Amino acid sequence: MTPTRRPLAALIPLLVFLAVFAVLVPLGAGTARAESNGGVKVMPLGDSITDGFNVPGGYRVGLWQKFTAGRYTVDLVGSLFNGPAGLGDHDHEGHSGWTIQQIDDNVVNWLRAQNPHTILLHIGTNDIYGSDPAGAPARLSTLIDHITAQAPNAELFVATITPLGFLDSTVRAYNAAIPGIVQSKVNAGKRVHLVDMYRALTPADLADGVHPNAGGYDKMADVWWRALLSVPGSIGTPSSTPAESTATGSTAYGNGSAARAA
């Protein structure tokens, strides 16, 4: 039996649908597309707060704007890729729903693949309402050991986690252990730096009691930015002196402004 050939006209609706679908699909989490610009490799590492739940790109958007305004050439790296089109580099390692242990189970492979110079670690939120929140500090310490063993020359910035709209005493207990953990690594000669993210945000900066809203992510970007500037070479050097307007914007963020850049 000879198969019936479908006329081209019959295929046009399908082709139109596929074309529209391709345009409408946003940049979701997926395999990194390696938007390398030859800059200093920075790996955003963590859970959905690094991914940018509720606000696509999360703090990575504001931080990227600061890199650009400050004329730093930075290459964000990771196995995931998402965020708005305005985010100049979409690569990251923000794994939604993941715990410290899940990150630890995979981090060595990511570090081998990406070889970052700087790592921004914000992890532990999912451990807080897990089965063993009391063990989270020990798991974090082990994770840091694995990161510094695989990437001994990398600058590792370890943040206290942002507030939650519940279980605040558990969050505080976890965060209270982090400075001692970081100091023990520093005493051992590791390139580890403490970042106090918890105090930068309040419950009013949360969209759903867990994830920051747009203003909260902007505050996170500012905290990361100031931490990076405090460690010479962590993001390289600017190509030239930033404009005066950049300095003014930085001051506003330092004063707690949650305004987003235009």
UniProtKB/TrEMBL annotation:
Pfam families xrefs: Lipase_GDSL_2
Region named Disordered: 236-262
Residue ranges of domain SGNH hydrolase-type esterase in the record: 45-218
Name assigned to this protein: Lysophospholipase L1
Alphabetical list of SUPFAM superfamilies matching this protein: SGNH hydrolase
One function term, GO molecular function aspect: phosphatidylcholine lysophospholipase activity
Compositional bias segments (type: Low complexity): 236-252
InterPro entries given in the database record: Ester_Hydrolysis_Enzymes (IPR051532), SGNH_hydro (IPR013830), SGNH_hydro_sf (IPR036514)
